[in-house]
Amino acid sequence: MVATLDYIERKFNEFNHTIFEDSLKPLPFKLSCARSFLGQLRYRRRRGFWGKCKYDNFQLVISGRKEMSESLLEDTIIHEMIHYYILSNQLLDTSSHGKIFRKMMNDINTRFGRNLTISHKSTEAEREQDCEIRNHLICVSSFDDGRTGITIAAKTRAGILWKEIPKVPGVVECRWFLSRNPYFNRFRRSRSIKIYLADKAELERHLEDAVPLPDGLKIP
Asked: 42: domain range?
């Protein structure tokens, strides 16, 4: 399922009552188009005269583009509610997911049968089901031992990767493409050199409609 504002508000109220004993004040909800996270608590941090930080202006943000199971969506909302509880009560944790967060998370998992985790990593099945159409800057690397690798470049780092990937030991050829094929959604976008080994025949099949980028072309 995909999150909606009505669903987030309804679940927030439900979990605030059943898990947090109605201790959390209402806050704004927002759907995000980001693909890099499932949920996020946004806030303003102000430093007082004695150096102590105060947190306010909270906003609960949930991805409106990610397809999630209902249990994962619920766990994501609860995860961010733990952050909200800690920061709205001005508690000082040892880190973003420090001792206080982990204790609350483990208690909730035990008492309410949840599966909260520190972070969520996409499964292979989730990546394969991602059919969103978006642009990909692709570098296909050929190695001297016959292996084939692929890098999906973050746009802001593409120029640097264009220059640096050919310097990787064993790389004998680099070909760049622009593609909108959802097949490439399964590969994480790289800001540093990261080459995923790939089946050459399968890769070439998915590159059939890609636009080759000639050497020296300014990357869009």
From this structure: 5-121
DSSP 118: S
pLDDT tens-digit profile, the chain (220 residues): 889 999 999 999 999 999 999 999 999 999 987 666 889 999 988 876 666 788 999 999 998 877 788 999 999 999 999 999 999 999 988 888 999 999 999 999 999 999 998 875 555 544 444 556 678 899 999 999 999 999 999 888 888 999 999 999 999 999 999 998 888 887 888 888 989 998 999 899 999 989 998 765 454 4
- Written as six digits, the tokens of 20 are 């947090």
Split into its structural domains, the chain has a count of 2
Distances, alpha carbon 54 to alpha carbons 74, 79, 146, 158, 206, in Å: 28, 21, 57, 39, 51
Residues 6+ apart with CB under 8 A from 200: 148
- CATH number of the CATH domain containing 95: 3.30.2010.10
Shared domain check, 184 and 106: no
Task: For residues 62 and 155, state if they share a domain.
Answer: no
Q: What SS3 class is residue 85?
A: helix
Q: Tokens 């292996």 — which residue?
A: 147
Same domain, 13 and 103: yes
CB 75 within 8 A of CB 19: no
Cα–Cα distance, 12 to 105 (Å, whole number): 16
Of 68, 99, 121, the last residue of a domain is: 121
